[in-house]
Specification:
The chain is globular. The protein is 33% helix and 27% strand. Helix 4 crosses helix 6. An eleven-stranded mixed beta sheet has the order 1-2-3-4-11-5-10-9-8-7-6, sandwiched between helices. By secondary structure, the protein is α+β, with helices and mostly antiparallel strands.
Length: 332
């Protein structure tokens, strides 16, 4: 790793996300708690977290195309020198061959869902149920506004606390593969808050998406347990109209694990064991991640683009590596 301090490395990561972040979720590389690998002579960074004897890398190599493979190989060598193994999560199809050449076993782990905003409308029979839910929320007195985070920090904490308690005493907030509110890059996010009678009841935070499908990522969402039906749909519909007015091209709903799995998307180095594990989690994995409900919410908006996402092990597939991903995301 090059000898630059943490502040400089974070600035490099922020630049790399804007410049090379083709993955719609690339902004999550800037989450608090992430580490960044850089190498002299190469542009870009690799975002990761240390978990046991693994370095868990997020979202591919954020670098110019000619620097992606050299930077990845340097990162793998760095891990080996420190007696650690690398596992990478949320790789895009364009990343696969680079990781195959670097000696990785790669399996599909889920998919991401995106909505093109140009010409999007909720008119027509296809969205009748969605329109009805939104109308019901409005009739309940729900109001939605874009608000500054700093003025509503305590409101969000209150909503978060009620949301978490409603999930049960053993449930923890998922991290790493989802966004956050606050931190060094909060100024780049957008926050839409729902209230009823002036009381905050729900919010959705949107992060910027860069690359060829630039726009916004429907990122972190929370609600109190007693919200009327249709509140989250109302919040998102208000945000969509705002983004469309501003000329944004895409709204990305982000990655959902264990969904969109297909034998046709199997890579040349896929592990049969990992394939079986992903199918098992797709059927029985609600205790790990609520994939079914997340997918249902995303599909009701009619996303036109579904992109497979991948999990890569440097060397052979490992159940221990999957466990460390679940651990650092606080899914277990």
């Amino acid at each position: 790793m090059s000898t630059v301090d943490d502040t400089v490395r974070f600035d490099l990561a922020r630049h790399a996300v804007r410049e090379f972040g083709e993955n719609p979720s690339a902004f999550l590389a800037l989450n608090s708690g992430n580490e960044y690998f850089t190498a002299a002579g190469h542009t870009g960074v690799i975002a990761y977290r240390t978990a046991g004897r693994y370095l868990v890398q997020f979202g591919g190599v954020l670098a110019a195309p000619e620097d992606q493979e050299p930077l990845l190989r340097a990162f793998l060598a760095h891990a080996g020198a420190h007696k650690r193994k690398v596992v990478s999560i949320q790789l895009q199809p364009a990343d696969v061959e680079t990781y195959v050449r670097a000696g990785c076993t790669i399996n599909q782990v889920g998919a991401s869902y995106s909505l093109e905003l140009s010409g999007f409308s909720l008119r027509g029979t296809k969205f009748m149920k969605l329109r009805n839910k939104i109308a019901k929320a409005r009739r309940s007195g729900v109001e939605v506004a874009e608000v500054p985070y700093e003025q509503h920090r305590d409101d969000l904490k209150t909503i978060d606390g009620q949301w978490l308690r409603s999930k049960g005493r053993h449930v923890k907030e998922i991290e790493f593969l989802v966004g956050e509110c606050g931190g060094a890059v909060q100024e780049d996010r957008r926050l839409f808050l729902a209230t009823i009678g002036g009381e905050p009841i729900a919010y959705v935070s949107y992060s910027p998406a860069f690359g060829s499908r630039s726009g916004w990522l429907h990122d972190l969402s929370r609600r109190v347990p007693t919200v009327p039906p249709g509140v989250m749909e109302l919040v998102n519909s208000v945000a969509i109209e705002r983004f469309r007015e501003e000329g944004a091209a895409w709204l990305h709903f982000g990655f959902t694990p264990f969904t969109g799995l297909s034998p046709d998307l199997r890579t040349s180095t896929a592990s049969p064991f990992t394939d079986r594990l992903m199918r098992l989690l797709a059927t029985h994995g609600d205790a790990v991640y609520p994939a079914a409900s997340q997918l249902a919410y995303k599909e009701k908006w009619g996303p036109q683009l579904v992109v497979p996402e991948y999990l890569a092990f440097h060397g052979k597939a490992s159940l221990g590596a999957v466990w460390q991903i679940l651990r650092i995301t606080r899914s277990v």
